[in-house]
């Protein structure tokens, strides 16, 4: 089996809307930390010089949001109420949702803004495949080339409400994108709202999750490495965080 990594790297040195703090306790620091803790909490003395090279174990502490890096949005992220009942958190969703046949749609020709139903249907025609229930749809927008820069937040294409609902109508429960989000950029949506005063342009892909239960994978990477638009399996199990609206995932494609 061949594996293709579809995940972006969490890097504290790269630009993020919400910054990352990454603190490292080196193996030498870890030895001293252990010795001090044993003496303080258990009254046991230990000389770190008795350890090989005076080192024990390293420890990484990160401060970041659940929407940093490749992650899965849960229904509870979209709002506190839904037409179908109480939206579930990331730890409450069935694992079956996060593994299944993948379908890559090429939207790399789309500019900044929204992708509508007509463009989505054309993408189906281009690969001679219409997504169906149980399949995981991946939107290849090409936005990953801007990852780690401020432009990643403002220059990409996202689905409008009708396009999102088209996929949900087909039975799709998991939609992924290599862009910062499944909706159009915040800057684009807010500018459209100021121009039209039409509330339907505000986060329509996310708000579709208030009507029907589904999940998004955002900030995917490497979709161009997939050898074909179909014929692969996507696995994107989210980290099990109690009561969270999202969870990080190491998304991969599996090919026979």
From TrEMBL:
One of its GO terms (biological process) is L-tryptophan catabolic process to kynurenine. Pfam families: Cyclase (PF04199). Signal peptide: none annotated. It comes from the Bacteria. One of its GO terms (molecular function) is arylformamidase activity. PANTHER family: CYCLASE-LIKE PROTEIN 2. This is CtcD. The gene is ctcD.
